[in-house]
User: What shape does this take?
Amino acid sequence: MTGFAAIILAAGKGTRMKSALPKVLHEIAGRPMLGHALAAAQSAGAAGATQLLLVTAPDQQAVRDYADSLDLPRNCLTHCLQQQQLGTGDAVRAAFDKAGKQNRFIVMFGDTPLMRAEVLAELANSKSDVTVLGFQPDNAAAYGRVVMQGDTPSAIIEYKDADADTRALSLCNGGAMGLSRRALEAYLPQLSNDNAQGEYYLPDMVSLAHDDGAATALVMAQPDDTMGVDSRAGQAKAEALMQARLRQKFLDDGVGMQDPDSVFLSFDTEIAADVMLEPHVKINVGVSIGTGTLIKAFTHLEGVRIGENAQIGPYARLRPGTNVGDEAKIGNFVETKKADIGKGAKVSHLSYIGDAELGMEVNIGAGTITCNYDGFNKHLTKIGDGAFIGSNSSLIAPVSIGKGAYLGSSSAVSKDVPDDALVVTRAAPRQIAGWGKKFRARNAKKDK
Ligand code: UD1
Assistant: This one.
């Protein structure tokens, strides 16, 4: 059993993005479009693709570097260089030269981030030599048209090569395709570039197979599945569609949202049932949220694990490396980074907690700051279980506050504090009676 190989075409220039970044590295829901394509191929069918043949242009090293950086199974990824962009058929040729022993292949594009694994699985599982992915868009525009003979496709005609009758057909080619090894061996060499665009068209495999008496078949997709991104506007549209999909998945799984359209999620977001997300919550990559937790409005999360029955926000910013324990509370205008916040701890107002370990039931008063950076290095602040940090304190790291210790308000602490101690670092107040009155009088004379 050799499974199927996925050929991912990504050699196109993507000039309409007007970006220094290669098109397939632009992100949708926090992951490059190519990452979505590779993940869909990997999770298509029971076992996913056994080989990912990635077609890039020679100058797209950044694309190859990205694919290499992914945690793919050993020897699964094969780079295939297409020297010149001579068309989708030529790109598949570059890949097939490097294919393993699989008998089934799917061809897909690196810039269709909404393509679902279920659809690819249908192409991979098809028994026909050439399986077309058709769709019915609202506006058939310049898509290739699928010509049917009875139940089976007999040809795909590119829009630029099509006559008026063919252009009037509403069944369009979605781009992806399922192919047998036999079809690739027999028909790839027969592709010609004698057409309106002077390109080797992959879709010509359909008429070559049909005319040869080989089996062709049609699998239908939703228009979103085949939506290619080739401009910033297209990227924004794909992002909106992906967000809608992610929101629906979490709503179906029991996550509450007062205004789903204002909540933004990432491809890898994990949220348990009975979490409530208030409006305008932005969840970047690497976030998991435990059951019963409330995320209040205008909260921004990235690289954060939040336990159960916690409360975050409104207006909180939790940055990478933050772990919030069960029942903990992070309030408004609090920023955290690389911080373990213990079970039941409270950081309720206007604080920066960075490079810190807070024990259970710690209370951080308003305006407390961990001074973690000396201009060169970051240092750790440790606060033991049940410690109480008075408002407006500065914890000058590295520093450790013992369990059950108390810091008086406005303390600036740079030396370790033992368990249960009280520290007060406020300067003794000095009062000068009548000073204000004299000061104003002195300055009033100057004005004249
Ligand atoms: C293609 C289909 C068209 C279909 C449409 C659906 C062909 C000839 N036409 O047109 O029937 O309706 O998709 O979106 O296949 N690529 C390479 N090397 C090349 C050329 C393209 O890797 O030499 C890659 C591109 O990076 C892109 C993909 O192939 O990801 C599709 O190429 P593109 O030229 O955009 O094809 P379409 O015009 O969309």
